[in-house]
């Protein structure tokens, strides 16, 4: 992946990551986007979840620069069939919710930023999906 893509996504992340409204927009969109999704978050403390997503996005950006599975293994197993059960097809909704939140909260958002995020998250998402059938140790 082009290093420029990661830099563009990382700058976009810095413009959004400390705004509570960014995470509110993200989860509002994600939960409404498919009937399988909201029930998974029925017990979620969203204040905590916003911090966890901030951290998780940061890790996926680092993973794009240096794909060390140890960085995101715990997050991957948290989404496996035996835990929160997030199959491959639900990740598209994650991408759409992210684009929605970025469009609202990143003043520099546009096609270039959107494409850079897609390229940056792709390796981490591919890894998460590859661990779907695995169980936490
Ligand atoms: C790149 C994509 C994703 C990232 C980076 C991500 C990140 C995270 C992180 C960091 C956590 C917290 C893990 C922990 O408990 O320590 C989490 C939990 C969770 N994620 Fe994701 N996630 C992604 C995709 C998804 C998708 C597509 C769904 C469902 C459609 C989903 C549903 C959940 C649920 C239900 C939880 C547990 C919430 C709770 O503890 O109440 N995630 N995610």
Question: What does this molecule look like?
Answer:
The protein has helices at 3-16, 20-32, 46-65, 73-78, 91-105, 111-130. By secondary structure, the protein is an all-alpha fold. It has one domain (3-130): Orthogonal Bundle (Globin-like). Helix 2 (20-32) runs antiparallel to helix 5 (91-105). The longest helix is centred in the middle third of the chain and has 20 residues, at 46-65. The protein is globular. The chain binds protoporphyrin IX containing FE. Residues 37, 40-41, 43-44, 49, 52-53, 55-57, 60, 75, 78-79, 84, 86, 90-91, 93-94, 121, 124-125 line the site of protoporphyrin IX containing FE (HEM).
Q: Which CATH class?
A: Mainly Alpha
Principal-axis shape: globular
CATH topology value: Globin-like
**SSE string, helix = H, strand = E?**
HHHHHH
Main sheet overview? none
Q: Can you tell me the residue ranges where pLDDT is under 50 for at least 5 consecutive residues?
A: none
What's the alpha carbon Rg, rounded to whole Å?
A: 14 Å
* Total number of strands: 0
CATH architecture: Orthogonal Bundle
- Approximately how much helix is present in the residues? 55-70%
What structural category arises from helix and sheet content? mainly alpha
């Amino acid at each position: 992946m082009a290093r420029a893509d990661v830099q563009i996504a990382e700058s976009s992340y810095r413009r959004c990551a400390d705004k509570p409204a960014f995470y509110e927009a993200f989860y509002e969109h994600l939960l409404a986007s498919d009937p399988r999704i909201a029930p998974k978050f029925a017990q979620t403390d969203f204040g905590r979840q916003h911090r966890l997503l901030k951290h998780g996005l940061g890790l996926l950006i680092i993973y794009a620069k240096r794909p060390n599975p140890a960085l995101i293994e715990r997050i991957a197993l948290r989404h496996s069939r035996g835990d929160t059960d997030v199959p491959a097809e639900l990740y598209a909704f994650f991408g759409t919710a992210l684009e929605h939140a970025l469009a609202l909260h990143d003043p520099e958002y546009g096609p270039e930023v959107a494409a850079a995020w897609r390229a940056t998250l792709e390796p981490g998402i591919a890894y998460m999906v590859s661990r779907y059938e695995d169980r936490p140790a």
